[in-house]
Each structure stands twice: as C-alpha cells, then as structure tokens.
Design goal:
It catalyses: Couples ATP hydrolysis with the unwinding of duplex DNA by translocating in the 3'-5' direction. Belongs to the helicase family. RecQ subfamily. This is ATP-dependent DNA helicase RecQ. Residues 218-364 form the Helicase C-terminal domain. By secondary structure, the chain is an alpha/beta fold. It has 5 domains: 2-197, Rossmann fold; 208-331, Rossmann fold (3-Layer(aba) Sandwich); 341-413 and 496-513, Orthogonal Bundle (Arc Repressor Mutant, subunit A), CATH 1.10.10; 417-491; 562-629, Arc Repressor Mutant, subunit A. Helices cover 46% and strands 14% of the residues. It contains 25 helices and 21 strands. α12 links the parallel β12 and β13.
C-alpha cells in the first residue's frame, strides 16, 4: 500500500519521498480511520488527502473556508490530469446543479466545498447519492469555538457523518492547542481516531520580539542586513502602500498587497514576488495562504497579531527551505493598547447586532418573510458608510449573525465570468445562420471551449474583444444578448465578498442572538490576547514559549531567538569578565570602586553581578573592604 502511495506521489507531484508524517497519515486514512493531522505551515497537508483519494474508489470531498486556495488546488489538480471541481458562494444555482451532477455521474475525483454550502438542501441531498471515499476537512481548527478562527458554518460538518456514516474523516490544521485538538475530534464525532502531530519547533527560525520606537529604521536595517526575499505584515491597507513606498525610496525592491486590489493585480503582484522580481511584499494578513515559497529569509510584523496561532502561521512562511530565517515582531506600548481596544470593540451589545441585521435587510431591500437563499455582492465599507457605523463591531456582528444561522458571508474572491449554451447544437446552428451579428462570437466560443453545452466554462471578455477586434463593452453586450434570447446563460465576473440570507427576514426585535456564546467567545479571545502579551514579555526562549502555548513540552533552548542570543551574549560577557577580574585581583587587592572602574567589559550592573557571583562561589574573597582572588595554598 505504501509503495502505491509513493508511486502516485512520484507520478503526479514528482517527489521521490514523503515529508515527515505524510506517509503515516496516508496509511491511517487508507485503513479507514478518522485521522487528525497537525502539520506546520508548508508541511504538505494537501498531499495527505490527495494521494489516498487517488487510490480509493469514489470521490473525495474537501471542505475549506479559503475559496482562493480551493480554486488554486482545483486548477493544479486539473493540470495534473485529475478531475476536480469547486463549489462556493457566488456560483449560480444552475452552476452548482451541473457540478453536483458531474460528481454523481461523471469522473470527478475531488469536490471542494466551502462550509457555507452545507446549508443548502440541494448540496446535502446530492452528496447523499455520491460514492464518497473520504471527507477532508482543511483548516479544521475553524470548527472549535476555543480556536482562534472559529467559523460557524463548520458546525454543519456533522451532517456529513449522517450522510455517509462509514466514510472516514481526515482533519488538517497547522495550529491547535490541546483543547482545540480535543474539540475537533468531538465535533467531528471521531471513532477511534488517530492524531499525528509534528513538533511546533522550527529549528531554523530565529524568532524575535522587539520593543522598538523606530520601527521603520529598524526594519530597513534588518532587510539590508538579511537580504533575500521577505514578507512584511502590517495592520491595514493604507500602511501596505506607505511601507512599500518607504522601502522603494531607500533602494529596496518592494511592492504592496491587500484584499482591496482587483484579482488580476493581486495575482501579478504575487507572481512578481514568487519569481523574485520583487524582493519584499508588504501585505495585510490577506496575503500568504497556500503560498509555498521556500526561500523566504524573513517575515516581519510591524504590528502585533491577534493571536499566537495567527502569528505562528504567518511567521512560518519563512525558511521553508530549511535554511536560517527570521520571523521578527516589532511593537510599541501603543500597539499593545490598541490591540486591547480592538478586542473590546469586537464584542458589541446584542441590540447593535440586531440593528445590523435590520440594516442589512433594508440595504438589500429584503421584504419581511422573504429573502431565504438570496445572495449578493457585499461591500462592507459602503454598508458602514451608508448607516454611519464602525467597521470593526459590524464585522463582529456579521460573524455572530452567521453563527446563529441568519446569514452567511464568504471571503472576497475573484470569480471569473462563466458561460453555457442552453440549447443543443442543431438549434444553435439554425440561430447562427439567421444572425450574422452573433455568428463570429459563437464560432469563437465553439473553437475555444469544449463542453460548453454541458457545463459552465470560465471566459475572459477581454480575450474575445481582442480576437474579434471589438470593444470590451460590445462583447459584454453580446454575451448578455445571448442570455436575453434564452440561448445561453452568462454570469458576469465578480470580485467581492458574497452575503447570503439563510432564513426569511424577521423583525429584528424577534431576532435570536446567543448571548452566552458571545460571552464565551470573548473569554476565549481574552485568553489569546493575554497569551500574546506573555509571549512578548517572555524572558526564556521564543520557541519554547510557542511550544508551551500549543501544549508541547520541550526544555531545550532554541539558541537562535533573540532571547537565546542575548543570554549567550550575557554569558560570553560574564565569561570574559571572570577572566579579567581574576587577572586584576591576582595583581593586587582592590576596593569595589577600583575593581569596577578598571574592568573594561560590560556595564556597571553586569560587573557588580559577576563579582557577587564569584563571591558566592568562593573564588573571590572580601576582607576589610578589599577584594582579592582566592589562591590555592
């Protein structure tokens, strides 16, 4: 069985060996066991479900909250000749219907679903008729309310167990505390499950947490010293541009990235950084998921992340090639204060959450008793401006509304335009003969795409405009015209988050919001913030502090973090001081002032500390106010 897994790995991925724990996880899955895999960022989690799924009969259903990552994985699988499809928010009912049919009757091997889709009766009913070999749950920590990134739609995953009770689950995550590990297994109803966990210690990473008044200057000096490729994480979109421009002005090849950019621009910026055309990318936390760039020499945070889980994931994008790299967190007291203020603002009163629901329904013109299943592009900035409310508590209100099953909100993701003919080939040919206007467009569609009569295909209107020597707007009008004539379905591209109403609209005063749950989440978040503060204030070892937080015991020092380096430096100074004290006192006895003044290494505090240590050890003697070195008789 292991040799077959390795053969698949070589055939499709070109690797000669598995990474640590991958083969053990795959073997567990092939034995039909519920399995939890904790692998670090860049540890190769996707291989753990893709390789066994290719050996098992039937389809593997993958649940992921990251739509952009789902799309990338589907694209990569298709390039390898493996049939895969993704269903997520923003797709039309017809598109979903066709994709699910192909999963039941076609050759689809992987179905990627966003968790919100499990609210759909259509999806649940179709999954019942699929031959499912494996359920793979990516970012599995999202199912736990004790985790740092709880996603209410993940609670729907228990439905999968009801639909296929004998199909094993593989849950995957990079970060989970012991409480979250237990919660994942409980929520997914693991039966005799196995847990595989790599150490959270990354020996090649020199973690640093620096209290710094001049962040920009320190950042510049570090980049100039370290060189190579790196990521700088900042708090907001404005800062991405400001910091990138600062670096460019100082001769560093840099660019900025955030979720507010259109998909094509984000892709170009990411590719430039991946190809080392740009050395440094300055980004919000929207950047990095699914990116596996091995030669990242530094990841700098110039603000404090919300949790140690988030920090560990983002910092872990450094040094994936195993060579020395530096995750550095720079902060000021004002950053610590702001983090706490944001925490307080993230748990608004119940009345505010109810008001946001009422305003959402008005914003999208949903009538009372209507709206179930309706989804819309959602611009939260415009929404908040319209109703004069702050974004942070509004975002939290949306999450609590989602948790209680009123709405579903997806991430911002680019969905290209899609097209499908709704008539057969003979009817289309008759239309072409009668319509010279549409004939060139139809011919180009048929030459460019296969399967356009069976399922939706992604299209690029700009490419059609270029080939047909027409304007972009004219091409869009023609695609729209084919839809108006009921000859085809045309779904224009979108690049916005999707908001879906899961229940008919009710009067906001009758809207149930679980206040107990909100208080529990607030308590969890408070513990996470205190853990971040404890990490910043740690005096032992950064790696040990991270391991301790994730429930891993390790008494060894990493020897490469800022704390270990400072300790080594202090020990080196103390060693040199001991030698110098011995030389001076062997020459003559001295008062404390004479001895401290004549020592050339360290500051006065360090000098006095070492003298006291030598006194305690009995190597130095004190008599009548004079110090001398104890000499053997």
């Amino acid at each position: 069985m292991e040799s077959k897994s390795l053969a698949i790995l070589k055939q499709y991925w070109g690797f000669q060996t598995f990474r640590p724990l991958q083969s053990e996880i795959i073997a567990s899955v092939l034995q039909g066991r519920d399995t939890l895999a904790l692998l670090p960022t860049g540890g190769g989690k996707s291989v753990c479900f893709q390789v066994p799924a290719l050996q098992l009969p039937g389809i593997c259903i993958v649940i992921s909250p990251l739509i952009a990552l789902m799309k990338d994985q589907v694209q990569n699988l298709r390039k390898k000749g493996i049939d895969a499809v993704a269903i997520f928010s923003g797709m039309s009912h017809r598109e979903v219907d066709i994709a699910l049919d192909n999963c039941i009757y076609g050759r689809i091997k992987f179905l990627y679903l966003s968790p919100e889709r499990l609210y759909s009766d259509l999806v649940k009913e179709r999954i019942r008729y699929m031959k499912v070999s494996l359920f793979a749950i990516d970012e599995a920590h999202c199912i736990s309310q004790w985790g740092y990134d709880f996603r209410p739609p993940y609670l729907q995953l228990a439905l999968l167990r009801q639909l296929h009770p004998n199909t094993p689950f593989l849950a995957l995550t990079a970060t989970a505390t012991p409480a979250v590990v237990k919660d994942i297994q409980d929520k997914l109803a693991f039966v005799g499950g196995a847990v595989f966990q790599q150490s959270f210690r990354r020996g090649n990473l020199g973690y640093m947490a620096l209290a710094e008044d001049d962040k920009m200057g320190r950042m510049l000096r570090m980049i100039q010293k370290l060189g190579g490729s790196g990521v700088i994480y900042v708090r907001n979109r404005r800062e991405t541009q400001e910091v990138a421009q600062y670096l460019v002005n100082h001769g560093i090849s840099a660019d900025f990235y955030h979720a507010g950019l259109d998909a094509q621009t984000r892709s170009l910026k990411q590719d430039s950084w991946m190809d080392n055309k740009v050395s440094v990318i300055v980004a919000t936390n929207a950047f990095g998921m699914g990116i596996d760039k091995p030669d990242v020499r530094f990841v700098l945070h110039i603000d404090i992340p919300d949790s140690l889980e988030a920090y560990y994931q983002e910092a872990g994008r450094a040094g994936r090639d195993g060579k020395k790299a530096f995750p550095v967190l720079m902060y000021q007291q004002a950053d610590r204060d702001r983090l706490w203020e944001n925490f307080e603002a993230s748990y608004p009163p119940i009345t505010f959450i109810q008001q946001v629901y009422h305003q959402l329904a008005n914003y999208f013109q949903i009538a009372y008793g209507a709206g179930k299943g309706a989804f819309f592009d959602f611009d939260i900035v415009d929404f908040c401006k319209r109703y004069l409310i702050d974004i942070l508590p509004t975002m939290s209100a949306l999450k609590f509304l989602e948790r209680d099953g009123w709405i579903s909100v997806s991430e911002a993701v680019f969905i290209p335009s899609r097209f499908k003919f709704e008539i057969d080939y003979q009817e289309l040919y008759k239309f072409q003969v009668q319509s010279a206007k549409y004939d060139p467009l139809i011919k180009l569609i048929l030459r460019t795409y296969g399967g356009v009569f069976e399922y939706y295909v992604p299209i690029n209107e700009y490419e059609f405009a270029k080939k047909l020597k027409m304007s972009y707007s004219d091409v869009v009008d023609m695609f729209g015209g084919l839809q108006k004539l009921q000859l085809a379905s045309y779904l224009p591209k979108t690049d916005a988050p999707q908001l879906e109403f899961l229940q008919p609209r009710v009067d906001y005063r009758n809207l149930f919001i679980d206040a107990t749950f909100i208080q529990e989440r607030k308590d969890v978040k408070e513990k996470q913030l205190k853990a971040i503060y404890a990490y910043l204030d740690d005096t032992e070892c950064r790696s040990k502090a991270l391991q301790r937080y994730f429930g891993e015991k390790d008494d060894t020092y990493c020897e490469v973090c800022d704390l270990c380096l400072m300790r080594a430096h202090r020990q080196d100074i103390a060693k040199k001081l001991r030698k110098e004290i011995k030389l001076l006192l062997l020459q003559d006895q001295k008062t404390i002032k004479q001895l401290v003044d004549e020592l050339t290494i360290g500051n006065d505090e360090v000098k006095v500390r070492v003298i006291r240590e030598l006194l305690d050890e009995g190597a130095v003697l004190l008599a009548n106010g004079f110090y001398s070195w104890k000499t053997p008789f």
